[in-house]
Amino acid sequence: MKHAHTLIRAALFCGTALFTVSALSAELLKPREVDAIPASPPDRTLAYGSDPNQFGQLFLPKGEGPFAVAVVLHGGCWKKFADLKNTLPMSDTLRNAGIAVWNIEYRRVDSEGGGWPGTYLDVGAAIDYLRTIAREYRLDLKQVVAVGHSAGGHLASWAAGRHRLTKNSPLYVEDPMHIRAVVNLAGPARLQSLSAQQQQKVCGSVPVTQLLGGEIDRVPQRLHDGSPSEMLPLGVPQILITGSLDWLVPPALGEEYAALARKSGDRARMIVVEGAGHFEVIAPGTAAWPTVEESILSLVNVARSRPQNDSSAD
Fold this sequence. Notes:
The protein is 35% helix and 16% strand.
């Protein structure tokens, strides 16, 4: 763990690095700079479906297990703007902290078969695939936490609530994998709060329309089934973390959702990291990262404190 952090900090702060991060810097990280953070490769790359985008990277800690699991979902406006390379550094760092990581790829709105309902179905299938590989890789399915960034934060929150879908929904599956908790990193959890103008500015298009397969006001049932805010209460602890300087998905959006979640009866906490932007929250070595890592570990520790024979944990 310390060795990994030393390497990352060296790359972040040395004069020959591609970028510089400090609390006093006005220059915020960009996605390709996060991709460039040194990281060790995954232990396994496994397909959960037949499409080239239906695969995940499995990171396994040292030890015998069973290991708690962080399902990690990258962002990128639900488009091919980013892929799971963007969350590889954080996946490696969480592995070094003792957590197994399932860093997943999925069809996006500009992929064949992506959008409605394919993007959602892929996320659900990837998470359910943990049941297939749990025994071989010593995964503790009672301790599965979803961690998503940006558009992936939306999908992580959605995955935690999909047990609430009704049988008439095209996103419904019987007995979905239980998510114990969610860490949503600068992700929009209330889709209708994203204005078309903001989406156009950030994403170069209006991807929520592509994600739902129609304008929000014309597909109310899809909005209900595909936006975490409409699925409340999710029934699991939720931590939302956003940088104070994040103009892509401003802190106000997380605060709005957290208030709605608490009103529904959920445990939801919003953390605003001063001086951080949109990508600092997924970059090990930044001032924002300890807050993220500690939040994830705190949810795993809650899970570990439960009695081993507590059947309600799954």
